[in-house]
């Protein structure tokens, strides 16, 4: 079995990912937890770059015959606006979203969470991500979180104040081993700089101590605990749910690079202080995404969600970005750069990805036609496609080297189309090509999808009808050897923004991507 090598943020080197157990049949089982989003709004394409990287890990592991036990959560309570820079400061993101203009259409905070969770799952499917085996929600695991708080208080790693319950960082000497952040500086400086509204709990014993439970009888989402009414700290849900579904020690834990500190550092402290066992043996972090060289922001108008790009304009799609875009093209562009490098999302990259997707779809239809036609003849593709697949998989096993893997996949697609342009594929060649498309789709997910691209209207596409009837007229003109008329019709079709292709199996067309 080949090595699956992946950069480990904990040891700071590329090393083999090792599933710690095998099932009854001897198949390795990878236990993988990937942090999901806070459902206070639509996840943006930067979030999805992280989720897609996790999806590639799952797919590659399955492609080499492993089983994956895959858990990715939904945060629906407890994530505060300042949580990334300061401990337990700011407003709850869910409550803030409900109070905003967009929040007006929701009956309450639970309704808002339900809406954005459903949207997340829909976008997840559109981009052809594998469903996790479990998608736990923080609000459905509060009892388990309270039990963890009680256990940490009992074993001396946590203490109660008038405001909440805190994890005492000096009680856990390994704090900082993931991020290298061992001092209080970043939290304190961040807190002071980020918000004047940050309230520091005077009873905290160390500035680094972080909240496991926030007492707040006025909060929109609250539960009763031995420490009074309140809600769990953001970091607690992930370590508790990961251990509940995957065991004390998991094989791989992932998320966006912004989660490495403080979120993941705090998860390690909570989990290892509870069990005395290592929490996760391998950590992966996906770097951030820029849009046309700028940080995404609502103010700049470059804040992009999946539906901004995949929905037709009359349903909110961004016409300036060419919406509706084939979701697999969006998937392709979001993972086209190495996950350990920042990625610059551009309109040009999106259009290039659409062209690649168009060629993949063309290869699929060529193969489908050839399978149906069942022509005799040699298979001149099998060896080339076998090598292209091997190269693609080898690149993915080498720390998810997607640029090299995609290049190998395109080489295979190019071979199929090149062969077809010389002469229609034989049935044997078509079978080899079909198998190649299936195999290369397994680790990459850019060929086959059940997802139906929403069309502009429920009615038939008027452009398609017009183009089809012009193509029929041109076929007639060519039959009658009226070349001038055939060329004139071709110009007319191309003026509609459509490209006409005459191939060995007839005339096809596609929308031009400029
Ligand atoms: Zn998390």
* Tally of individual helices: 15
- Biggest beta-sheet profile: 5 strands, mixed
Number of E-type strands: 16
Bound small-molecule species: zinc ion
Low-confidence stretches: 185-198
Report the mean per-residue pLDDT as an integer: 91
How far apart are the first and last residues' alpha carbons, in Å?
Answer: 44 Å
Query: Percent of residues in beta strands?
Result: 5-15%
Shape: elongated
Please state the CA-atom Rg, rounded to the nearest Å. Answer: 27 Å
Q: Which structural class matches the secondary elements?
A: alpha/beta
Q: Helical content, roughly? A: 40-55%
Please describe the topology of this protein.
Blueprint: E1 5-8, E2 13-16, E3 21-22, E4 28-34, H1 45-63, E5 67-72, H2 93-99, H3 109-126, H4 142-154, E6 158-160, E7 164-167, H5 185-194, E8 210-215, E9 230-232, H6 234-246, E10 252-256, H7 260-275, E11 283-286, E12 289-291, E13 294-295, H8 306-310, H9 327-334, E14 343-345, H10 347-373, H11 382-397, H12 402-422, H13 427-444, H14 462-479, H15 483-494, E15 498-503, E16 506-511
Parallel strand pairs: 4-5, 4-10, 10-11, 12-14
Antiparallel strand pairs: 1-2, 3-4, 6-7, 7-8, 8-9, 12-13, 15-16
Zinc ion binds next to loops.
């Amino acid at each position: 079995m080949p090595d699956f090598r992946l950069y480990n943020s904990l040891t700071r080197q590329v090393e083999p990912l090792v599933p710690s157990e095998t099932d009854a049949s001897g198949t390795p089982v990878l236990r993988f937890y990937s942090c999901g989003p806070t459902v206070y709004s639509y996840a943006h394409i930067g979030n999805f770059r992280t989720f897609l990287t996790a999806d590639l890990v799952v797919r590659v592991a399955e492609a080499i015959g492993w089983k994956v036990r895959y858990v990715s959560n939904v945060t629906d309570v407890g994530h505060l606006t300042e949580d990334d820079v300061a401990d337990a400061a700011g407003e709850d993101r869910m409550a803030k979203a409900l109070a905003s203009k967009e929040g007006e259409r929701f009956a309450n905070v639970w309704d808002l969470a339900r809406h954005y969770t459903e949207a997340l799952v829909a976008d997840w499917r559109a981009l052809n991500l594998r469903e996790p085996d479990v998608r736990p929600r923080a609000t459905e695991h509060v009892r388990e979180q309270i039990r963890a708080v009680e256990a940490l208080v009992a074993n001396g790693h946590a203490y109660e104040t008038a405001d909440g319950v805190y994890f005492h960082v000096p009680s856990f000497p390994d704090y900082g081993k993931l991020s290298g952040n061992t001092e209080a500086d970043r939290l304190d400086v961040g807190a002071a700089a980020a918000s004047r509204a940050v309230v520091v709990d005077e009873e905290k014993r160390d500035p680094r101590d972080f909240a496991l439970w926030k007492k707040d009888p006025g909060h929109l989402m609250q539960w009763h605990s031995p420490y009074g009414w309140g809600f769990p700290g953001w970091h607690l849900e992930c370590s508790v749910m990961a251990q509940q579904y995957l065991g004390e020690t998991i094989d791989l834990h992932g998320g966006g690079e912004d989660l490495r500190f403080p979120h993941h550092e705090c998860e390690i402290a909570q989990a290892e202080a509870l069990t005395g066992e290592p929490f996760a043996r391998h950590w992966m972090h996906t770097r951030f995404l820029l849009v046309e060289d700028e940080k995404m922001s609502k103010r700049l108008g470059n804040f992009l969600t999946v539906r901004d790009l995949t929905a037709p304009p009359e349903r909110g799609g961004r016409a300036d970005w060419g919406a509706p875009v084939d979701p697999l093209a969006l998937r392709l562009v979001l993972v086209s750069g190495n996950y350990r490098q920042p990625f610059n999302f551009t309109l040009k990259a999106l259009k290039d990805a659409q062209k690649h997707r168009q060629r993949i779809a063309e290869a699929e239809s060529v193969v489908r036609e050839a399978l149906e036609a069942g022509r005799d003849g040699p298979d001149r593709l099998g060896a080339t496609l076998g090598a292209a697949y091997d190269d693609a998989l080898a690149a993915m096993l080498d720390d998810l080297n997607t640029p090299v893997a995609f290049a190998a996949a395109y080489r295979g697609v190019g071979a199929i189309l090149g062969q077809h342009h010389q002469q229609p594929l034989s049935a044997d060649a078509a079978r080899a090509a079909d198998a190649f498309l299936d195999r290369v789709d397994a680790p990459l997910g850019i060929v086959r999808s059940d997802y139906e691209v929403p069309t502009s209207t429920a009615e038939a596409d008027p452009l398609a009808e017009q183009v089809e009837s012009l193509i029929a007229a041109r076929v007639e003109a060519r039959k009658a050897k009226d070349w001038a008329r055939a060329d004139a019709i071709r110009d007319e079709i191309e003026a509609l923004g459509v490209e006409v292709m005459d191939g060995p199996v007839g005339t096809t067309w596609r929308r031009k991507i400029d």
